[in-house]
Amino acid sequence: MGGGSVAAFSAALSAALLEKLVHDPAAARRLGAVRRECLALLDRDAEAFARVIRTTRRKDRRAFRAALQAATEVPCRVFEHAQRVQAACRAAQQAVKPRFQSDLRCAMAVAIAAGESARTLIHTNLAWLNDPAYAKRIRRRLQAAG
After folding, report:
1. Cβ-proximal residues to 134 (8 Å cutoff; 6+ apart), any chain
2. Other CB atoms closer than 10 Å to residue 137's CB: what's the count?
3. Which of 34, 53, 59, 94 could bond 15 through an S-S bridge, CB–CB 3.0 to 4.6 Å?
């Protein structure tokens, strides 16, 4: 398990914790969907990065760039989901009972950690790719997410 998997698992955990705290069924369904997708991203991250490693061994620059761009998609999705969980935490703040506010703060802290971890991985991949146009698209996507 690498950093992307850890970030995805953290986002899934924060969504699961918040899912149990919210009373709005629609919000709970959205958080459940985030949790499930982030858990699926665990395997996608491992597979995607294994492809990156294989392409480095073949010394095929074109295949490497394609594999690394595909691998960058995982932390991008994690970042977007972490931003959604953070927004849901803020939205739930007034509705969550005082005795559960510590769980809400925990969900927020883990969502923030997941987002920052994902952002770090994205920036590392972008530096490794050294493709300014692609980097600009990804940075715009991150700004739009949060």
Report:
1. 69, 126
2. 11
3. 34
Which residue matches tokens 């620059």?
61
In the chain, count of helices (H) and strands (E)? 5, 0
CATH topology of domain 3-145: Four Helix Bundle (Hemerythrin (Met), subunit A) (1.20.120)
Q: Which residue has the higher pLDDT, 34 or 97?
A: 34
Q: What are the boundaries of each domain within the chain?
A: 3-145
Share of the chain above pLDDT 70, in %: 99
Distance from C-alpha of 18 to C-alpha of 23, rounded to nearest angstrom: 10
| DSSP line for 20-85 | HH---HHHHHHHHHHHHHHHHHHHHHHHHHHHHHHHHHHT-HHHHHHHHHHHHHHHHHHHHHHHHH
Count how many Cα atoms sit within 13 Å of the Cα of residue 92 in the half-sphere of its side chain: 31
Reported as a single tens digit per residue, the pLDDT across 47-106 is 998 999 999 888 888 999 999 999 999 999 999 999 999 999 999 999 889 899 999 999
The Cα–Cα gap between 70 and 12 comes to 21
